[in-house]
């Protein structure tokens, strides 16, 4: 009987032992936010300013117009600003649900363009924007962690409301853009 009681007490403590320590969780979230956020901010800066080998707003606008987004320069600007500010917000953990919404909105538009190409394609497939949107939504749901500017606000811990705001606002933004084109 004593052995059974010891096993039960071990089982009761085991789930806590398997959880990541809070510091590891915060560092993991920081790494995820910084890598995805800064890469997308750079991607937006390529569109807006021609940084990092990008073509700038005028040339990107021509590409957007060729895809059916007219006026192309306006939509390229919207995408560039959304990626830059959303990426920086995600990286800093600042206004995380709204930063995630900005990225989700842009990625929904990218997914709409990629659907005819399929999921796994060498260039322009659905997998990249789908992964970025999933990461942004996940960070909104989990919260940005303690190494974030949002740590002082009540949405610091994420939750279903934060995820719903990110997905809803991102989806609404994407729908407006898609209906306007």
Automatic annotation (TrEMBL):
Domain of life: Bacteria
Sequence intervals crossing the membrane: 48-69, 89-114, 126-146, 158-180
Compartments in which it is found: Cell membrane
Pfam families hit by this protein: DoxX (PF07681)
GO CC annotation, single: plasma membrane
Key words, A-Z: Cell membrane, Membrane, Transmembrane, Transmembrane helix
UniProt keyword Transmembrane present: yes
InterPro entries, sorted: DoxX (IPR032808), DoxX-like_oxidoreductase (IPR051907)
Family (UniProt): Belongs to the DoxX family.
Designated name of the protein: DoxX family protein
Origin organism lineage: Bacteria, Bacillati, Actinomycetota, Actinomycetes, Kitasatosporales
């Amino acid at each position: 009987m004593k052995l059974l009681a010891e096993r039960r007490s071990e089982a009761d403590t085991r789930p806590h032992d398997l959880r990541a320590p809070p510091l590891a969780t915060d560092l993991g979230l920081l790494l995820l936010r910084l890598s995805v956020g800064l890469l997308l901010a750079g991607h937006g800066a390529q569109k807006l300013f021609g940084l990092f080998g990008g073509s700038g707003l005028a040339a990107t606008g021509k590409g957007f117009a060729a895809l059916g987004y007219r006026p192309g320069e306006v939509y390229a600007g919207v995408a560039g600003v959304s990626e830059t500010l959303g990426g920086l917000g995600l990286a800093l953990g600042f206004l995380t649900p709204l930063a995630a919404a900005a990225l989700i909105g842009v990625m929904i538009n990218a997914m709409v363009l990629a659907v005819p190409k399929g999921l796994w394609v060498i260039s322009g497939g659905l997998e990249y924007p789908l992964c970025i949107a999933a990461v942004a939504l996940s960070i909104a749901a989990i919260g940005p962690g303690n190494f974030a500017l949002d740590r002082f606000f009540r949405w610091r811990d994420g939750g279903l409301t934060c995820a719903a705001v990110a997905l809803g606002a991102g989806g609404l933004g994407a729908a407006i853009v898609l209906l306007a084109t």
